[in-house]
Amino acid sequence: MPFDLRHSADLRQELVTAVREGGDLVLVDISESTVVDQVGFATLVAAHARAARAGRRLRYVGADERTTRLLRRAGLVRLLHETPSPALALRRRTVAV
Question: pTM of the predicted model, to two decimals?
């Protein structure tokens, strides 16, 4: 589903529910979505602000290149949850042994 004006109300409600029912860290998989317009982008940012007010951290996983670029340009790259690549995880495990 695209993050755009047409879908923003539904997406906003889903994000509100995720923040309300989530734990300290709420991970939202947006791998099958893309930010299409400024309303969609604002919806993502507003969800993050709502989570912060609730004392939770909200992060997005699976962002496409365009969404990542938009967040980076806005200085909001911290909204992305960085997961280590399998190679990095393997190197850490090797070093720890």
Answer: 0.73
